[in-house]
Amino acid sequence: MYDVSTRKRALALVAQGRSLNSVSRQTGISRAAIRSWQQRLEPLPHIASPDPGPPADSQAYSYLLGLYLGDGCISAHPRGGYYLRIACADAWPGLIQKCREAITSVRPGIGVYAVQSEGYRMVTSYSRHWPNLFPQHGPGKKHQRAVALEPWQQEIVDAHPWEFIRGLIHSDGCRITNWTTSLVAGERKRYEYPRYFFTNLSGDIIRLFTDTLDQVGVDWKLANARNVSIARKASVALMDTHVGPKH
């Protein structure tokens, strides 16, 4: 058995991006034990504070809000407190790092852990106050309930619209390259053109996305009820400047 301080130290090393092998060699703790602590992520008493207050970094919060609405969830711990979990595909290590940095900026001093699953990492953090910071939390899936921003959240998104858009694209969006052919002087030529897509089952989240696109002057259209397409050259250029592809 290991005491709380030993577990905290090992998990803090993992949170820095160290491998389980590296942490195991440094601490003498087995990889299996460290992995089990990651999966349980027991709440630590010092993490909680009487009043969460506003997000410590509103710019980071706007980005994290986009990630949460796309691929995030909040779940209660049986002994109190809550876990914020954001699913990030292994294919995008830069996204995993940005997600961890955003959580740390929004709630300085709390632990952030990446729990490996098949094909993705669940970036996870414990706090008693996640439901206060993300009041969209509720029973069931997001697309099965109403999703609306609180006035204070809307103020943050209005102040940092590109961060919100980036978070949504990084969670449920993509930048792809389409192509077509055209006959020019008897010769068929291939033309490639980039576009952005955003996909979500929630009509409310789709509207939050498109309303924010309108705010920053990005032209968009609905490919269908759950897909937003951004294809105009000037709008793609804007997105490339402020969002860019996942990496």
Topology (SSEs and partners):
Elements: H1 4-15, H2 20-27, H3 31-40, H4 58-71, E1 72-76, E2 82-89, H5 93-106, E3 113-117, E4 120-127, H6 130-133, H7 151-159, H8 161-172, E5 173-184, E6 187-199, H9 203-216, E7 221-224, E8 227-230, H10 233-242
Antiparallel strand pairs: 1-2, 2-4, 3-4, 5-6, 6-8, 7-8
Walk me through what this model shows.
With 247 residues, the chain is an alpha+beta fold. Among the domains are: 1-40; 168-242, Roll (Endonuclease I-creI), CATH 3.10.28. It contains ten helices and eight strands. It has helices at 4-15, 20-27, 31-40, 58-71, 93-106, 130-133, 151-159, 161-172, 203-216, 233-242; strands at residues 72-76, 82-89, 113-117, 120-127, 173-184, 187-199, 221-224, 227-230. The strands form two sheets. Strands 1-2-4-3 form a four-stranded antiparallel β-sheet, sandwiched between helices. It has a four-stranded antiparallel β-sheet with strand order 5-6-8-7. A hairpin with a 2-residue loop joins strand 7 (221-224) and strand 8 (227-230). It is globular. Residues 42-50 have low confidence and may be disordered.
